[in-house]
Specification:
heterodimer; A: mainly alpha; Four Helix Bundle (Hemerythrin (Met), subunit A); 74% helix; B: mainly alpha; two-stranded antiparallel sheet; 13 helices; 67% helix
Amino acid sequence: MPSVLQLVFLFFAAVTVVGALAVVLVRNLFHAALWLAVTFLSVASLFIVLNADFVGLSQVIVYVGAISVLMLFAIMLTEDVVGARGLSLRSAWPAALPVAAGVCVVLVRWFARYAWLPPQPPKPGGTAGTIGLAFIQKYLFAFELASVILLAALIGAIYLAKEERS
Amino acid sequence: MLFDLIASFIKAVLVFAVVMSFVPFLIWLERKLVAWMQQRIGPNRTGPFGLLQPIADAVKLIIKENIFPSGVEKITYFLAPMMSMIPALAAFAVIPFGSPVRIMGRTVNLQVADVNIGILYILALSSLAVYGAVLAGWSSNNKYSLLGGLRTSAQMISYELPIGLSVVSIVLLTGSLSLNEVVRSQASHGIWNIFPQFLGFIILLISYNAELNRAPFDLGEAESEIVAGYHTEYSGFRFAMFYMGEYVNMVTVAALVTVLFLGGWQAPFGPEIPLLWFLIKIFAFILLYMWVRATFPRVRYDQLMALGWKILVPASLANLAMTAVIIVLGGPNAVRILSVGSIVLAVLVGLVLKAAVALRTKSAPGLAPPAGAGS
């Protein structure tokens, strides 16, 4: 008999998988982006079920609240996203299948190399402080590298937008 | 365990009922206040002082036929009003509205859920609120709706940035992401956050006005340009949900600003009466927002974006940097130094703004205001 928490986990895991499938199978690009938001939301719920509250809520803020909305914004600005001319994986599935299968095998083998811990009890003060300290102590280099890359992307975006105007 | 469960349930129902019953009163108040400010009379036919007008409107909207206009995408059209109302209501769950009270020998927090990352939770939910406008704009099969949805989504994403950055400064001052802890730290500092975070307060006030899509930032539903924006095609109860969502959002934002900057439920003087001071502060904010709405003309879209990205984001970054440096170097006096520094920084930002506006009007005389139209 699985516990309530396990059932909740399974529910959100199922929603994640269904949402991800819908993203690639739905013909309407706008609906695909909405399904992507659903997938992100249920991944965030999975994090929260696993007591990773900070990661879960950051996932909502960044992926659901910003990235998906930007995609929807771009799609709303684009003509002809509904209809038959919309790009769909349905025509390309023979090529996509082996690639997806390969990625799946690599990921599963990779994950199998780790010993998985049983669910940890929630930390009394939440996880935010620990994560913050890890960013500026143990993983400082990776953190700074990521911010430099993001800055470069930002400058690139500004440059491209400027080019367009003149 | 059972006691906690029942207490949470009662608190959730009570908070829901109280917030929802604010809505008709606020609608009446806003119509009346704006009418007075515009030298009109406002609603005065239904009940004393027109007090029953929102009830009459609500009854009318609820019993109205539910219409799906032709060509709408039914599921997204159906979901949109919910998505604009639910996040606002759910965000209220983590707002502490009083110091813990003792009932039947147990301590009960006056807060539906004491989440230790309540601030992040609120930011996450307010970032979900944009979906109401996006879904409505897309599904209505109407170009004005689409334009409204586009405008609103870009606007809300842009203004979430200064909101997040100013809230981070509060987190630096508090050292915790829990809203209860924010109130407690203001008590232990002996000074409300509005003083050490004066600039952050101004930024948050402006940004939340934009996040709420209220005048002068109501470009997503600008009636003189795009009919009613993303809710053009809605009528009946679904329209009412958009309308209620706006006011619920206003209450939630007022409560959040109260907790973050005005010491939450604490009394500025005199004895601490439960809920009284919290309600007074919330209403002060709501009245301020109504006053702003009646005072300022709607901004142009490029002005809105320029204000957000060129002024509010840099200003909130400067505020964040100053807060971090002073907290590290100031030691025990940090809060006092910040109270001075924050006002100095706010004045500086104001001066830079004034200089920039003067420069722009000088370089493009066609845009200059006509003579005598203020300084």
